[in-house]
Please model this.
Amino acid sequence: MSEQSSSVVSSQLQQNVAVITMSNAPVNALSTAVRKGLIEHVSQALENDAVDAIVLTSSLALFSGGADISEFSKGLVEPSLPAVLDLIENANKPVIAVVSGPAFGGGLELALASHYRVTFADNKVGLPEVNLGILPGAGGTQRLPRLAGPAKALDMIVTGKPAKAKTLPGVFDVIVDKPEELQATVMTFAGELLAKGEAPRKTSELVIDKAQAPEQLFAEFRKGIAKQARGFYAPERCIQCVEAAVNLPFEQGLAKEGELFMECMNTPQARAQQHFFFAERAASHVADFDKSTPVRDIKKVGVIGAGTMGGGIAMNFANAGIPVVMLEMKQEALDKGLGVIRRNYENSAKKGKLTSEDVEARMALLNGTTEYNDLADVDLVIEAVFEKMDVKQAVFTKLDEVCKPGAILATNTSTLDVNEIAAVTSRPEDVIGLHFFSPANVMKLLEVVKADKTAPDVIKTAMQMAKTIRKVAVLVGVCFGFVGNRMIEAYSREANRLMLEGAKPEDIDKVIYDFGFPMGPFTMGDMAGLDIGYFVREGRREFIAHDPSYCVVADRLVEQGRVGLKVGKGTYLYEQGNRTPIPDPEVIEIAKQEAQKLGIEQREISQQEIVERILYPLINEGAKILDEGIAAKSSDIDVIYVYGYGFPVYRGGPMQYADEIGVNNVYEAMLKYREQLGDYGKAWFEPAPLLAKLAEQGKSFKQFKRGE
Model:
């Protein structure tokens, strides 16, 4: 047995089989070094007369996570992945891929170009490139349909979702039960192939049975994904690639794939989706702690409030196997909250997402109490009570008395000053904001709010805990509304003002929906409850008193009891049991009357003005937040807006969108509306200093570094 190695690829001769092993931590990304290593070791094995077969495998938990996308910006560096795969597929000795762990993107394409594939039943493989705004560019769209069939390949390539190996019998020649069995199995399999004299079997030479791809397959698939694919560029090109696999010879299909790949790469959608991919990962890199900072154990959690928010928060921890004590002042409220959680779990079980055993196991982790003393041994407590400072402070005063030393005291406030809440305790260093988004058991975002005295180990514990409960955490500072709600205030304000100026709510909602949001501002307001915004405005009247038009129609609606979907009428009307908004002429009339009182002339408003008026002030507020250090980097704001507020990921978030269209264009539009809208414009359309500075320098938000 001999061995040759490079830093990331090594080879070992076992009897007459060359075992080539990738070892490029952490995920075996197919970097330039790995591609060179594969070419070198495969070529040597092909030239070595002592080698009769080649095995490709990995020394890591993953077979390969795919392309190294950090190399995208450098342009093509030889050898390309298609060149590596050509060498493997055209090898005159059998090449067997041992897919010893998950294989994604180029990793799966590497396996598909091999002559045979061996894996274990529960292993997951996939082609997730569509999530980066592109498509598999190394033959994946041509080889997968030949092995898995067009229908399965379509689903995997267009959705980007992984599949378990046991659902892909056409792709894998041998599927063992457990990964430990792979090594012995592949050597036996290789021996059998050689004994039978089996020639290399090229995937590219397989012919797709046209009966597996009737004409309606593609039409029905397009129809089925229309809603999810809205606004994205890559899904349609993925479908066209699979059509090419069915209708064209392999080489022509490969050329089509290459052409459509480059088409996708040069789109704003691909730039936005790749920006967001890195932004999500960068959110966990913060300057407030380092590797040496310890973390506190979170083995038991307390949640105060068993309502919608408290119940959702509690579910996150139960889902992660962490026991929760839920506190309510009244037994009736507690029983109701636990009942709602049980129903939520049972509904998941009905949909096949959980077993009945899972439901009972999670419910067993949730215990209720009406006594604060039962929180004495929790490691973390999160309050989710009424959004009023005196109520929050009363809760924290009590927590300070009963919680053990070292317990983290967290508030789920969405707007209030965490410093003021921390000030009523004797341990402000243990206090932090954990702002969950509703429904808390579904929404991925968690705004982690550091107060002035929050300790570094508390911040680090909160950021790591977020991963445990499968949330994406973004660290922010203290100000009214933090990042998300501070910015959404400008968005909602302008939507309401545009209604006064003559735009219909349904027209405004359609423009914002067409931009890519899941719903417009008025539909969102009705769903959340117009009384929530009204309550926030009541606490801020002194800040908005200079603008008598501020959300005045929304105020009138709430005063008439029209608080939204929950009562069947808000900005829109709703039929019983139906969530579809019905435009109401009465609301248009209220807007007209209020406009007359305020001396606002109603007019036709273009779609472009609606987009600019609603989104540019939101971006402008983001610029202030960035300048003030409330957000550490512009990409953090983008993560908050995509995961918390439905900003379309194919636009990358508000700050990436501004970078894409040009910060100077946002700046000039702000100046234009500042002049056009009179006193209102002067009050609300003053460009942020950072927006002006970047526009003048010709820079992007992405390039901004504090202190430069």
Notes: The mean pLDDT is 95. DSSP finds 29 helices and 18 strands in the chain. Residues 301-476 form a domain with the Rossmann fold fold (CATH 3.40.50.720). The longest helix spans residues 607-628.
